[in-house]
Design brief:
The complex is a heterodimer of chains A (about 100) and B (about 160). Chain A is mainly α and about 100 residues long. Chain A contains three helices and no strands. The termini of chain A are far apart. Classes of the chains: A mainly alpha (about 100), B mainly alpha (about 160).
Chain lengths: ~100, ~160
């Protein structure tokens, strides 16, 4: 088994783990963390592709995905905090309406 | 080979720990270990700049942001144990994704190329050359994210 194959399999397993986490957890913070795991799995694949293909463009794309993940975390956590700060428990199934 | 195996194992174990941790603080610690393991993997794969960005942005900024929000959430964000239906949904969903990805992975046999591009200079040339449009678009993206987060918070304060 080559190291490249190992990293490729790790990336696939990480993405599946993140998907399972989003579906399993009901806490919005834990769901966002699972999304971060999925983004990281994609990034790992991009960096691996940069090495396998010798194409440095993929590394630059991985950097842009990093920035995207940061922006996603900021907005997601802001929404979660605004929705759940005054509730007794953080449960993504609980809110029935969102006042706009 | 051995360092890459260790990095992959740490990344996987900490990701599973993150998903299964009942308390969000433990999950944030898992995210920290996960991102550091991935930074190590990036270094081993010859992507020094991405590894540095991973440590600065993930291990630094994002994990601290998660910890702040955990501190502000009611009851530290603790939650009930997932019921059987939720566990089943997660198992089916994750399993289906894994199966689809396994087919895709099984169809390729990656081998490292001889071309050793990937220094900081090469990445910069790509960022300011062929990827200039997405790179410049990250600036308004960050601005919109910051303004959006503040706007959400302000509206909630007034209510």
């Amino acid at each position: 088994m080559t190291p490249e194959m190992l990293v490729l399999g790790t990336s696939a397993l990480l993405f599946a783990t993140g998907t399972g986490g989003v579906l399993l957890r009901r806490n919005p913070i834990a769901m966002l963390m699972s999304v971060e795991v999925m983004l990281n799995a994609g990034n790992l694949l991009l960096v691996l592709a940069a090495r396998v293909r010798g194409a440095v463009d993929a590394q630059a794309a991985a950097l842009i995905v990093l920035v995207l993940a940061a922006a996603e975390a900021v907005v997601g956590l802001g929404l979660a905090l605004a929705l759940f700060r005054n509730r007794e428990r953080a449960d993504a199934d609980e809110p029935r309406e969102v006042r706009g | 080979m051995l360092p890459i195996t260790i990095g992959c194992l740490v990344a996987l174990v900490s990701a599973v720990w993150l998903v299964l941790a009942r308390r969000p603080v433990h999950g944030a610690v898992g995210l920290l270990g996960h991102s550091l393991a991935l930074a190590g993997l990036y270094l081993l794969l010859g992507a020094e700049l991405v590894a540095m960005g991973q440590v600065l942005i993930y291990s630094g900024a994002i994990v601290v942001l998660f910890l702040f929000v955990v501190a502000l959430m009611p009851a530290g964000g603790a939650e009930d144990a997932p019921d059987i239906g939720r566990i089943g949904t997660a198992a089916v969903g994750g399993g289906a994704i894994l199966l689809a990805l396994a087919f895709a992975v099984g169809a390729v046999t990656p081998t490292a190329s001889d071309a050793t591009a990937g220094g900081v200079v090469d990445v910069a040339r790509s960022l300011f050359g062929s990827l200039i449009v997405p790179f410049e678009l990250t600036a308004p993206l960050l601005l919109v994210a910051i303004v959006g987060a503040v706007a959400i918070w302000r509206r909630q304060e007034q209510a």
